[in-house]
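Notebook entry, structure prediction.
Reason for the run: the old model in the group folder had no record of what sequence produced it. Starting over properly, with the input documented here first.
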Amino acid sequence: MRIVLAEDDPLLREGLALLLGAEGLDVVARAGTADEVLDAVDEHRPDIAVVDVRMPPAHTDDGIRAAVEARRRHPGLAVLVLSAYVEQSFATELLTGGAAGLGYLLKERVGRVEEFLDALHRVASGGTAIDPEVVAQLFTRSRRDTRLDRLSPREHEVLALMAEGLGNSAVAERLVVTDGAVHKHIRSIFAKLDLTPTDRVDRRVAAVLSYLGDPRRRL
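New structure, fully documented this time:
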């Protein structure tokens, strides 16, 4: 796996590079500013970019904007965002855009090495990884879809894990139930949220958006 690592804190950047290198992963470039992110992605064409949200020059959402531009230039580029805080608009935007090959983790998660590496590999493979704390905070802050009141406690658990980006087997493992039981719960969730199969709507993404809040919220 070839990685562009974008982090303006030199100590954290070098620490991440050492961690990834120790796992046999190839950090092909390190960036300290948003402009350097784009230059590195253009030059090296990595499999994934690990990007801090707040980077120079403005230290607001420069890292995110660089990541969005990098994906525009290089469709299919996987991006794992690291943030010290829950940036509500961007986390919702992840799922609104389909979320394939995208992840959002709080920086504190990096210290849990196995979880961080699992998220990195999942995103690089085209999956989604949303920090559980991000899910929890967004759920607390967001205007709640009243249809969610129809769900059972177990269905809420299943939907929360779906919002983290876990597939059916991973949900089953986390809840210590069978894959068949998870599939049954998900079908029930779709029914209770009035989500019917169509060619235009991914029901899994639509269900997660209902959980997180208003899907019309844009970056």
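Summary: Residues 214-219 have pLDDT under 50 and may be disordered.
The old model has been moved to the deprecated folder.
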